[in-house]
Each structure stands twice: as C-alpha cells, then as structure tokens.
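We were asked to recover a plausible sequence for a given structure. The inputs and outputs are reproduced exactly as logged, with field labels preserved.

PROBLEM: sequence recovery
POSITIONS: 701
GIVEN STRUCTURE:
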C-alpha cells in the first residue's frame, strides 16, 4: 500500500483457524454479524499446493533432450528472453529460462542445458534423497524433522542442509541424481542438478563430471524435477506428498526476490527454491494459476539477474493469463498493480464478554457481571492490568488496527499496548504503545518500534508478517479510595497488505455472504450533514474525522457540538484529531460503542447499509480527477461518511470538506471511491453502533 498521510485533519501514515479466547470474522463479514458479535470459522484447507488432474499426454511427458518444445511457446519465450536480456545488457550465454505447462503437455526453453553454478538450488536434491532413503520419515515424520527439511527449502539453511546431506551421504545423493529412474544429472546431455559438497563445509568436495562445479543446475533438469513431482514420480506418490508439504512450509515467508516479485500482488500461490551466490541468480518454481500449474526455471550469471528473473517471470504469467502477444505481456508486466488492494486480507478479533477475557492475565482486574464489562480496579500507586492470552492467527499479517471502548471515570486513565510474534520460534516483539486516555499510568513506557516493525501513530505496520498477537491494558487513578475502569470491548483488525504470495491458500475464518437484496442497500441513510469548514478557522482544516463522527453520533440520537467531539478526539501526544482508536473511544464516551476495522469487499459494505449502519471511511485522493466531483483535487488523507448507494450502485456520502449541506451530500462513483478507500487506506472505517442507554452517566464523564 502506498504511504498514506492524514495532513491537516489527520497525520502521516505508512501505509483461519484461530486459537484463542474471543471471536473472529473474515474481513468484517456482515454488519449484522458485527453488531451481534457473531463469527464462524471455515475448515482449514490442505497445507500444500493444489493438485490438478493431468491428461495422459502430460503423465508421459519427460523433457528429455530429444523432446520437442511447443513452437508457439518457444517463439514467445525466446522473444521475451531476447527483449528483457538485451535491455538489461545480459549476454545470451549467461542466461537461461524454461517453462512447462503440464496440464497442456507443452514446454519451451532457452539454453536449457547450459549448466550454472547452482548455489542453493541443489538443496532440493538433498531433501529428495533423504525422503527416499528414509521411508519411515515419509510415513510418519517427526515434527522436528519436517521443520528442518522445510527450513532447508524455504529458508535455505546451510547448516541444516549439511546435516541432512551428511546423513544421506554425497555419494548416495549423486547416485540418486544420475540413476535411470530420475536422470536429474545427465553427463551425456549438459549435466544438471549436482550436489558435490556439504553446504558450508569445504571438504570433501566432488565436482560434477562436466565442469567440476561443487553445486550445479540446469533449467531442463530443474523443470524435470518439478514435472516429476507433479506426476507423483519422485520416489513414490507418498514421497511426493511429503515433499509438497516440505516445499509449502506455510509458517515461513518466501524471500522477496526473483519469481516471488513476479507474482507479488497477483493473488497466486507457489512453491519454489531459489539460489544466490555473488552474481549467480537462480529460481525454480511451481506457480498455481486458477486453472492449471505453471513450472518455471530461470538462471542468470550477471549482476542484473534479479531484474531479469522477476520481469520474465511476470511477463510469462501475463501470457499464461491471456495476453495476446509477448509485447502485450511485457506491457502488462511493467504496469503497477492498480487494483492491488483486491488481494488484501483482513480478519477481526472481538473481545466483549466474560469468556473472551477469562483466559487473560489479570492484576486487580475481574469480570463485573452487573456492568457486563471487565473491571480494572486501580487506586493511587496500585495500577490494574489486563493482558490477553496469545492469539494465534491462521494467516500471516503485517498490520494491526486496535480499538477499544473503556469506561473511564474522572481522575483515571489507561494505556493500551500490543505485541506481535511468530509461533515457529516462539518469538515476541516488545510491548508497543498504541494509545492512551486520561491520566496515563505513571510507569507507562512508550516503546513504539523494534527491528521488525513499528506503531505508526496508532497502527502496527511492518514489512514482515507475523502470526500471533496479544494486547495489554494498564489502568491508573489519582482518586482517593480507588476507581474501576470498565472494559466493554476490545477489537483488533489484522491485515495482510503485502501482496506476498503464499505457498498454500490460508483458510478463510468465515465464509463470505453475497450482497443482500438491492432494495435494502440502494438507499441513503438519514445521516445529518455537518461541515468542518464552519467551525473555528484554525481547526477547520484538521477536524474531518471528529466532524464525521459527530454526524454518525447525531444519526444515533447523540447530538453534540462538533467542537465538543473534536475536543474528545484530540490526541495531545501527536496534536492530531484523526487518530483512529481515539476517535472510537471518543464516540464511546459520547454514548456510541464501536470499533475501527477494514473493508475490501463491497458486499460487506452493502450489508452494513442494509442493516442501517453508516460508516466513517478513510480515503486518499492522490491525483486530480480521481474522484471527479469531490470538493478537493487531492488529499493525503480525509474522512467522510458513507451513507448508502444510489439506484446505479454508486455511493452516497456526506463529505465534511464542503461548507454547504446541499453540496456536501454527494454521490461518488463506486469505482473511484474504491481506489481512494480500499486502495488509499486499505479500507479503514469506523463502525459506530447504536447508542447504549444502559450505562451509568458517571461512566461517560
């Protein structure tokens, strides 16, 4: 997602199966489900690549040196190789590439038998040989062994690779590679995959028979490896099933290079093994298209090898997906992914009742049944703390939005923190400060970053992905005799905005529903209009968020002056009015519970309108004309109220940037707003629910 900034009225922003107490939803499911706190989990999908039925011609395919490539594919691949290679200044004899379409029994290659230094690619031979030599592991592997093998493939761990090659023996690995059953090294036809040295250990060393390389690979033999795997002919079908699990390793991310860059943002899955040493760059992969797999191998000995591999990989995918010519494929491959937000994934956690909080760690905290809330009972010098249990996510995320509704009496305050981690190595970040309210606990620290990510004002962001999370609330008071802060709800929205591919399809925690009947959502909710421009001049350009909140509050029967809501929303630590969770807490103090979340699907939004739920949405307009009738040419960040849909499906909004109510109740084209909202902020929205009338007034102060 491009950097997202809330200037003036905001601030700068860079933009499963679940095991934990609490309730989960995919995206936001429906607004009815959100209001009721309902969730569902779909069964996890298999942890491996999708398998396709191969025709008989593909089952007999072998890519031997006398195999004839498909003429059309060969011409297209040769043209792509020539154009990209020449543009990058890579000599023709220093690059090789090949592709196999196993379902259609077609293949093509350029320099398929040119042997390259193999770097880490021959580790695929170590893992295969180990599985063939150890049938007990194939039948019933120890988790530790599987984890080791997965690290050899996906993390390219040299020490583990050496451990397992020593267990098998170099001579046994080489015998397997040259055996008639596989012929993955063919000394009569250019060589192939070779492992002649334990990784990271100088001796013994057995160079390959043709070029004396310690580790070697050719495009042809790497493609044959993946083809034999597709055909269930590497060892046995059981070995192939286990090998796919090794390659998948869903707990680990790919290195973001070569063919991974080629598929980034395309919502495709792959398994792969890459290699890098000095100016040798290699990648081999099975890429899963919707209707068939694509086997791809590329090798370059040149400093610009990474560009060659990523460009030719993406261009070939464009051809496979329907580009008419190689020239068209190159143009499509070189275009940025305009609709990359369509690959974003969001899951929301909701804690609101006793069972959600029961398993957390509590200090001076207990469930208050009479208030239906978690009570944090603090007194001067004795803070209260609630720490959630670790929450394990079935898909990896790189951003977290956290929001809360906490009743806070006068002379009290609280701090909210989060931590992220990874299950595989039981690692955790430090506690990261997300936000606070009122009298902040005196011992509170404000750690906001570590080497794996940071809090960008109020949202955790990272280039990495994580799969576990926890949060902590610390409360304090200066009031003699002590006070109780009441935690009514905590919500977290987990997002993967990276566009990075996975090696398997993560399970959807809840099935998506289709759109509700049109007559329920093609309407404008009666949300009163307010303008930020009619308030104090020095604030008029800064308070789009509290102005939008004020509109929805009035719709909920809670009419407060806009400046009163702005006062509640103001974050003194950042001198900002658009801090997302603080706006949620301000609305709660005013009487409306709610949370901040993300949307990426219009059917979810339509369901909200059908349920009578307006949304305060965060948009970014980064070029003139992006929203053709908006009152601004561009904005680095702005919040508006989404009120419904017109008969054609375009979007009714209340835009507080307009002074005149008649001009501020606008219709924005759906496609334009999608880019500004889903693409601009990743679909961020405030969901402010119907007002609660049962809370004591003292709690609102």
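RECOVERED SEQUENCE:
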């Amino acid at each position: 997602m491009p950097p997202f900034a809330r200037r003036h009225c905001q601030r700068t922003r860079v933009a499963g199966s679940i095991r934990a107490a609490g309730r989960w939803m995919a995206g936001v499911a429906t607004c009815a489900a959100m209001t009721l706190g309902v969730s569902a989990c779909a069964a996890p999908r298999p942890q491996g690549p999708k398998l396709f039925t191969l025709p008989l011609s593909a089952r007999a395919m072998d890519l031997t040196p006398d195999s004839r490539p498909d003429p059309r594919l060969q011409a297209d691949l040769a043209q792509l190789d020539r154009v990209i290679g020449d543009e990058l200044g890579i000599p023709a004899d220093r690059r090789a590439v090949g592709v196999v379409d196993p379902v259609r029994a077609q293949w093509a290659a350029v320099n398929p038998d040119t042997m390259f230094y193999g770097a880490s690619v021959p580790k695929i031979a170590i893992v295969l040989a180990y599985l063939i030599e150890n049938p007990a592991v194939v039948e019933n592997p120890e988790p530790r062994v599987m984890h080791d093998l997965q690290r050899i493939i996906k993390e390219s761990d040299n020490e583990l690779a050496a451990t397992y090659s020593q267990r098998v023996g170099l001579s046994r690995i080489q015998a397997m590679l040259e055996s008639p059953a596989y012929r993955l090294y063919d000394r009569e036809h250019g060589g192939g995959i070779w492992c002649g040295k334990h990784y990271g250990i100088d001796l013994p060393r057995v160079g390959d028979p043709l070029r004396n390389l310690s580790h070697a690979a050719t495009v042809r033999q790497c493609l044959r490896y993946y083809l034999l795997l597709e055909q269930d002919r590497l060892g046995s079908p059981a070995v192939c099933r286990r090998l796919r699990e090794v390659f998948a390793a869903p707990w680990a991310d790919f290195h973001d290079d070569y063919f991974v860059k080629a598929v980034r943002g395309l919502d495709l899955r792959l398994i792969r093994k890459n290699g890098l040493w000095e100016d040798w760059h290699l990648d081999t992969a099975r890429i899963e298209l919707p209707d068939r797999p694509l086997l791809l191998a590329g090798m370059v000995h040149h400093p610009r090898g990474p560009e060659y591999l990523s460009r030719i990989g993406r261009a070939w995918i464009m051809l496979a997906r329907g580009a008419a010519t190689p020239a068209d494929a190159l143009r499509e491959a070189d275009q940025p992914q305009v609709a990359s937000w369509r690959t974003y994934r969001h899951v929301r956690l909701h804690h609101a009742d006793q069972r959600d909080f029961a398993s957390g760690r509590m200090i001076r905290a207990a469930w208050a049944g009479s208030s239906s809330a978690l009570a944090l009972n603090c007194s001067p010098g004795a803070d209260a703390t609630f720490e959630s249990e670790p929450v394990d996510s079935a898909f990896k995320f790189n951003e977290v939005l956290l929001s809360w509704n906490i009743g806070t009496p006068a002379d009290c305050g609280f701090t909210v923190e989060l931590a992220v981690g990874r299950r595989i190595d039981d690692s955790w970040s430090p506690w990261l400060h997300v936000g606070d309210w009122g009298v902040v606990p005196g011992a509170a620290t404000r750690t906001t970053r570590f080497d794996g990510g940071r809090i960008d004002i109020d949202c955790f962001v990272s280039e990495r992905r994580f799969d576990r999370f926890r949060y902590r609330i610390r409360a304090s008071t200066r009031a003699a005799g002590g006070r109780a802060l009441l935690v009514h709800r905590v919500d977290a929205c987990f997002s993967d905005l990276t566009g990075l591919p996975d090696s398997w399809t993560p399970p959807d925690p809840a099935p998506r529903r289709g759109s509700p009947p049109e007559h329920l959502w093609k309407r404008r909710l009666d949300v009163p209009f307010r303008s930020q421009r009619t308030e104090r001049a020095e604030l008029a350009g800064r308070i789009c968020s509290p102005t939008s909140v004020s509109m929805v509050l009035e719709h909920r029967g809670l009419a407060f002056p806009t400046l009163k809501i702005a006062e509640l929303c103001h974050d003194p630590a950042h001198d900002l009015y658009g801090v997302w969770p603080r706006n949620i807490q301000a609305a709660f103090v005013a009487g409306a519970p709610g949370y901040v979340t993300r949307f990426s699907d219009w059917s979810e939004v339509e369901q909200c309108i059908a349920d009578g739920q307006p949304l305060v949405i965060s948009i970014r307009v980064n070029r003139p004309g992006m929203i053709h009738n908006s009152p601004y040419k561009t904005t680095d960040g702005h919040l508006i109220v989404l009120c419904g849909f017109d008969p054609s499906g375009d979007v009714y909004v209340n835009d507080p940037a307009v002074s005149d109510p008649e001009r501020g109740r606008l219709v924005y084209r759906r496609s334009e707003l999608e880019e500004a909202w889903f693409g601009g902020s990743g679909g961020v929205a405030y969901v402010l629910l119907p007002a609660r009338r049962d809370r004591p007034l003292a709690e609102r102060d």
